[in-house]
Amino acid sequence: MIITTDKSYTKEEIVKLQEVFGSYVKTVIDIERGICSAGMDRHYEGERILLKQGGKQSNLWGGGIDVESHLIDYNSFINIRPRDNNPSNDILNQDIRTQYEQLTKQFFWALYD
After folding, report:
1. Domain range summary for the chain, segments of one domain joined by +
2. Is residue 112's pLDDT more than 90?
3. Residues 65, 74: Cα–Cα separation, whole Å
4. Which of 17, 19, 20, 90 is most buried, taking the most CB atoms under 10 A from its CB?
């Protein structure tokens, strides 16, 4: 189940987000608008939702979180954007990585309390 929000996910929502990969949840975050789309099978599905909601491609970044270990990753095919100086699956820009990490922790706050 894909849930797109600008608020923190509840524990119940996080359980629903785990339907596809178990303890791992894929996420796409609009780092400019502070909106997260999570729970998809492929990152492009969340990217498409955020673009339809008015997001700009250069602000959308993909990765995920392991809900058991709380390990955040920054890896997605949607991140391959040479025109945005990111020729890799990983988010290379440290400022963008930091924003993505902070927003992920905000959206998945229920895992940390």
Report:
1. 3-111
2. no
3. 9
4. 17
